[in-house]
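User: I need a structural model of CbbBc protein from Pseudomonas azotoformans for a docking pre-check later this week. Nothing fancy, just the predicted structure tokens so I can convert them on my end. Input:
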Amino acid sequence: MSQHHQADQTPTPRYKPYKGPAGGWGALISVAQAWLTSDNALKNLRMMLKTNQNGGFDCPGCAWGDSPESGMVKFCENGAKAVNWEATKRRVDGAFFAKHSVTALLEQSDYWLEYQGRLTEPMRYDAETDRYQPVSWEAAFDLVGKHLNALPSPDMAEFYTSGRASNEAAYLYQLFVRAYGTNNFPDCSNMCHEASGVALAQSVGVGKGTVTFDDFEHADAIFVWGQNPGTNHPRMLEPLREAVKRGAQVVCINPLKERGLERFQHPQHPLEMLTNGDKPTNTAYFRPALGGDMAILRGMAKFLLLWERQAQAEGKEAVFDHDFLNEHTANVLDYLGKIDDTSWDEIVEQSGLTLVEIEQAARMYAKGKNVIMCWAMGITQHRHSVPTIQEIANLMLLRGNIGRPGAGLCPVRGHSNVQGDRTMGINERPPVAFLDALERRFHFQVPRENGHNVVEAIHAMLEGRSKVFIGLGGNFAQATPDSPRTFEALRNCDLTVQISTKLNRSHLMHGKDALILPCLGRTDIDIQAEGPQAVTVEDSFSMVHGSNGQLQPLSKLMKSEPAILAGIAAATLGSKPVDWNWLVADYSRIRDLIADTIPGFKDFNEKIKHPGGFYLGNSAGARRWNTPSGRANFRPNILPKDLIHERTHATGRVPDLIMQSMRSHDQYNTTIYGLDDRYRGVKGQRDVLFVNEADIIRLGFKPGQKADIVSLWEDGRERRVKGFTLLAFDIPAGQAAAYYPEVNPLVPLESTGDGSHTPTSKFVAIRLEAASDNGLIMARSA
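Assistant: Understood. Predicted structure tokens for CbbBc protein:
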């Protein structure tokens, strides 16, 4: 069935376990389908060969770094989906909205909405007809300026950013918003790796990973925590399997058995494809309790301390790197005291692993001379995520595994420029040094008070304290927790503005006044007054490189993100503190301003001419610790007393299951490319709850039966999603998993990470109730 038919029809759901490896023929077939159904196949074939190439464009998918090797094909399966999804010929224009009211569009799925095509002209919502209608760019900019200038305080506006925005757009955005007078920058980082930034800044002085792409070639142990690279970062699979091949340990810690963490068949290796061979991507696989990672890390550290004391007593080689500890770290004795205070019983009970398994993981770590620790949202979306990440850093510091080749910390970022946007100043809690640099360069009083993160912005809109919402990309309505309350928050605004490439649900959850402003994507040629323009992005390894669009835009009415932001800024502030339109005539002028105000970007315009871009540098990677102590800090946190929140206990109910949300293989963030999840065997359905078969039976259900999922949280609100099929799956007892954003309504807005304010989407206490529709599908794993 083609994607077009899937979008317009209801497919028959089915489940069949997938036997193949990650990648391989399944990936090639998927790429071919994405290409053929783009309605732009010939041009897109040529364009895909420009993905991640020098002089080409940066993939709009994940933030995994580019291999330094050259090659004709430098994109993965899901990168190809992202490119073809963006580079479609289908369009959403005034004629489309004349046919479809907002009320009617609300009945459609997220997949159907985005499938309709690219937004090609600016639109304004008309309440009388319940339709979006065409509006001129000048009128749109004037409307935004009018609303912003009418607010009693700049802090009554929210300025959201998606991780897709380029460095140039992000810098221009933050400059405009701070000149306007606020630090209200809720952004997608708040919902994913915020905990990484907070934790690492306190531990090692920088909120980024410390490794480079080359380090993976020199590591003799790689730990992968709470991550599914086969779907979310497929290009990571090759370094993992190459590490296994050369004899390194690759240790995966993840509750679900994910195919990409088991074995991989490289689609670009002809012999491997012809013989249907594959290679393993791990040497050990541990399946913890949800939220149990910190206990595992503490247990590993406790074993290291035991072995260190034994080595000292027996006069053997030390387990700890004492030279590194003495020269570079602080608080090690306090941390070792916390290890002694943590009992083995507490560690085993909370971790979900046996003591033997924890010891095995510890021995693999101790054996490695150069170790990399990778993690993603399986670590960052818990209440205790900041202490967990600091426990990763603690473990690495004990053996000096930061700041040397083949070793370091690697938070694997999601969206393609989410790290770059933070570097450019998209931060509700900006560093003082950055604000000082802005004041010196632009001569205006920069706001100093912290602004709103995502959760705080939603509360402010709900309570009427914020009345204007501007979204630079993304799908805020579907990316956020507690969906009905987020929808209400957006509808409570006087104005919502969405700068977007494609139609999504955020356009339908609009304020009293609303604009859709169509922007160019990463694949589109961007021509401004001074000629064709390139933009830049920063990957997870702090590499900055250029991106040049390859396709003619579908409409002359589409504008680039910098051009749209310049138009809004000029309508709001005039030519203060800069001539906005002059800046966007040539993006090199924006890069000159970046070079003037952000460390590491000196000679920016020259550096991006270098093939592959340039390395920003990393202070911790060079063993320079930008902390108050001037050293890397051990953080002596205690394990959580109880993983279950007190508001869950206040319901008086014991949870049936603890659920995590996750992506399917046919999606990227909130973008749904199709209704299948190949590696997990699901086809034609997304309303699925993955549950251990014994738990299904224990709770009085049958595999394939439909159930309502109810969140356990005491605040007077019912959080329920209806009619989810119970899929018997290989998942640890007591756990469940379901797709994001379908289960976002179950995540309470108040359930956030301590210190990060990130929604706790990986730990949701639920109960199951029988649904009215109890039809069965084949739903038992082999």
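Before docking, keep this in mind: The chain has four domains: 20-87, 91-185+434-519+559-602, 194-416, 646-770.
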